[in-house]
Fold this protein.
Amino acid sequence: MGFRILRPPFPLGDVFLSAGADALELDPAVIDRLLNQHHCGGGGDLGDDDKRANDRDLKDGGRILSRYDIESGSFYVITAWDRSMSTVMLREEY
């Protein structure tokens, strides 16, 4: 059985939690899971238009957006256009 090593398509930069996400006091494993999924470029629960925008922005240097609807709420993970930072935030904070 072979293994495939995933190479994230972009750097996360410094990682931040918004005030709303921080106030939920999420298990750090949940935050890690969101960041890992975002970092692998899946986009989570985004619509097709946003996924196409991510594909374009990955090539052209735009921001990368993911959305995850989980039991704790709906979250965006956004990596800045210059890849200097990524933020985990509640969907309503966007």
Remarks:
- The first strand starts at residue 14 and ends at 17.
